[in-house]
Amino acid sequence: MNLLPVVQLKWVLSFALLYAAHAAHVVAQTQTPQAAEGAYIVTFNEPGMLRYTGGANGLRPTAPEATGRPGIDASSPEAVAYARYLADRRSTYLTSIASVLGRPVKATHHYAVTQNGVALDLSQAEVDVVRGLPGVEAVLPSAIERTATYRGPEFIGAGAVWDGSVFTGAVASRGEGTTIGILDTGIDAAHPSFANESLCGYDAQNRKLKSAVDCSSTDTSGACNGAHPEDSDGHGTHVASIAAGNRLASATVPAPELPPGFDYMTGVAPCAALRSYKVCSTPERCTGTATLAAVQQAIIDRVDVVNYSISGGRSAADPQDVDYMFLPLIQANIAVVAAAGDMQLLSQRGGIEHRAPWVASTVASMHNTVRRPLGGINGPDVPPVLYPLELFPGDYSVVGRDLPEKMSIRRFAASPSLCDAATLPDNFFAGGVAYVRFDGGCDLLSKINKAKNAGAVMVLVSTPPDGHLKLRTKGAPATMAVFTLTAAAKTELDRYLDEHNDTAQMSYYPYYEYALQDSLVRTNLTGPTSGADKWGGFIKPDFVAPGDMVYAAIPGGYGYKTGTSMAAPHIAGSIALLRAVRRDWTAMELLSAIKMTAYEDVVNSSWSNYASIEEKGSGRIVINSAANSPLLMDETAARFTNASTPEDLRNLNLPSIMNRDCEAGCSFKRTVRNPGSTAVRWHASYISSLERQVRNTTVTPENFSIAAGGTQDITIRVEPIYGKQREEKEQGKIKLTPFDIDKAAVQMPLSVVGKSDGLFAANFGATSSYGLSSLETLLGQGWTTVNHSTPSSGVSKAWIQGDIRFQSPSLSATAAQSGHPNSYIRATPIDSLVENATNVVLSVWLISPEIEFGPASTVKFWTRAVIPGADSVAWTDSLEVRVCQTGKCGNVNSDNDTLANYSTLALAVNPDRQQGAYPSPWTPITVTAADGLPTSGRGRVAFRYYAQYQMGPIAGFVHAAGIALDTIELTGP
């Protein structure tokens, strides 16, 4: 039978996605006698044009703060004169460097905007010499980074900006008059996504693609002049089309595959102009020398926003870091958006990139309706992790929309990796799925081609032990669907095929659709950031945007990509839309509008609860709300540069609040501006997102009025609540609510950590509450699960996370007692595994961390039957609460009846396992000393799901359905 649930397979279209950009190879142009060892950026003493305020040979200033103009006008007389002066100085310095080194030197790059400098290939010995020369300010190595829609634009609210319905008056914007700079792997200039669309005012004289340059080298003025601006990988083309690709219909050549019900695909800002700056020669080589050159040119070109879907930004205080290079863009009033980074390995939790507060770090989410490939292994004794089976497509893989709904799946036992000399029989995979090991010593494309030649129509690549989720499939056969799977699924599939290699089948849905609003992509890197660096103490990421299975342009066609690289250009395109209609808003004010109006209820990557601030930042962008934001916040490059003390950093005017060292209390100052034409009265409040608030947070003034165009200073104070213990995190939001009901409220996320007063440091009377939003988190807090059922395969992984995505209608009522619908845990037998069994005993344990007992100790929890008692079969479920106080409290022995050190039964729910007697609705149960809970000593509490299968009168059914637990509270003495 087909084990996957029947779903309605809909096409859904959005336009914008993929992963992160790469790195431009710096062409070595020096001649030896002494071999160059690496690229270095040499900065001289003279300020670049962006920072020159006058004083050099009587030349007039060029810095925006001195000229009163935004950015740099490179054609102005003062800019031309100062640029010529800087070029002469660089020429003089290069002559001196060549003389001291005793060899010719030629700069690969010249810089004149953010600084006066050059890029040179130097040996380490030469670096030390150059550093000591007069006029040399710094010599730093060039960093190497790597690259990190389908209903997307409409989903984030772009449609209401396109048609003007979001505005008062006849205002509409598709990005006309704005320019997006893409720092990436180049661009396919001939793609129809970037053609001169007449409806947007573009023609041969006024081109949509204003420029496409290769920044692997520059001329002596600093202009990028590399020989290969075309896209070397496909990443840059995809990213650019997400941000500003044209509106394309099915008649376009080449034609996109538009699903039924969709007439076109489009970028977020389809009428915005583009400039492409190639900074990556391969996906793994994006150089700092090229990136710095691109930043200089973007400032000269006066773009409105820069998109950087590339790694980096880990320490913005370091001049080698790309985020450090991006700060001058803010001075030039150019917004900066970057991909927050994707896990290459599942072990890379945390580690978010682009941490500087002037860079909009963006993570990826799914759309409101999730549509992605999904599989499921069919056959006897299928482990739950293989049904359903999550599939992760290769970066150039097709989805396989025409594949059969059910196929055989096999592994070639003589050479599981397809790398050995063993001969693969003709037609071995015969129109089915080839399951292939990732390792083995040969490249992935070789494996794919061998599988295809043996008849495979899909290749499923097993993850290596480190849990790799990224497959580079560029160059694979155009019709071959290639996927990988999670490490947990790989382990179980290996075992399953050991026994069922010749009979196993796999169900496959290329576009499985289910509703799960705004769920984060599993591979996102996340916060919190480290406080070690001065720029590590801010809430990151900043935003969430669609980044899962985004359909957008690739060289010569279209393809799906997933990652934070695809999420970032959704933001860049949105900023172009905003700037087109809000010209008086600064770059930082544009970003603040997006942050303060973001949609907050984003679901975490395990799909079990709402995401934390460290996972979602402010939330998912809603561009139509941002366009009408009633409050804005601004910050300057100068204040970022001059911030040096903890107080300076806390009081930077950002729409987010974070302090990881708030022990005795801490304060924050913020200033908001009213961009409207009338005065507005506001109420300020704090709302905690935790089940129990652990800190007292106040906003002053609580009520205030801001005149049209005026500003208001507010102070946020966070203090301990006496009686709370441990280092606890307080999270929530500052909410500003207008008295005028025609205007929307705005918010700022808050995350504060610090020791409390320690009054009850001995845990006296303390209650530990576990909301069960994540089984993984629970196990990390000292809980343990044990499955001693007979047979052990009769229950899934002992306890598993609640999950409403794949439940049948009869189970849909089993939502959580509190929080997100999936934030509970359950123990549920799998009918298909035991429907013919006779002597099955379920013994499934959940064991607490060690706790202290006393006369006032209690154990409180919520429970219910997984299937309501009104179901056609009466179930015989039971739950025991047992206690251990002696010996090894982790010992439950190895069979279903031996209780070992948990022989003390404190309480049982339905102890006689009566049919239909287990509570159907969520029911709170409290265990006290009167029930048998110990009144002294230390030990552990265990929840034991206990049931027996007895074949009933209905063939194929068993008399146990499973139970659910939620919100466990353990109270000390």
Describe the structure.
The protein is an alpha+beta fold. The protein contains 18 helices and 46 strands. Strands 17-16-23-19-20-21-22-18 form an 8-stranded mixed sheet, covered by helices on one side. A 7-stranded parallel sheet has the order 7-10-6-13-14-15-24, with helices on both faces. Strands 35, 37, 38, 41, 44 and 46 form a 6-stranded antiparallel sheet that branches. Strand 20, helix 9 and strand 21 form a beta-alpha-beta unit. Helix 6 runs parallel beside helix 11 and helix 7 runs parallel beside helix 8. It is globular and about 95 Å long. Residues 1-36, 757-765, 792-796, 805-813, 830-837 and 951-958 have low confidence and may be disordered.
Question: Rg from C-alpha positions?
Answer: 31 Å
Strand percent estimate:
25-35%
Q: How much helicity do the residues have?
A: 10-25%
Distance between the termini: 54 Å
Task: Point out poorly predicted stretches.
Answer: 1-36, 757-765, 792-796, 805-813, 830-837, 951-958
SS element count, helices: 18
Number of DSSP strands? 46
Lateral arrangement of strands in the main beta sheet: 17-16-23-19-20-21-22-18
Envelope shape: globular
- Mean pLDDT reading: 82
Q: Give the class from helix and strand content and strand pairing.
A: alpha+beta
Largest sheet: 8 strands, mixed
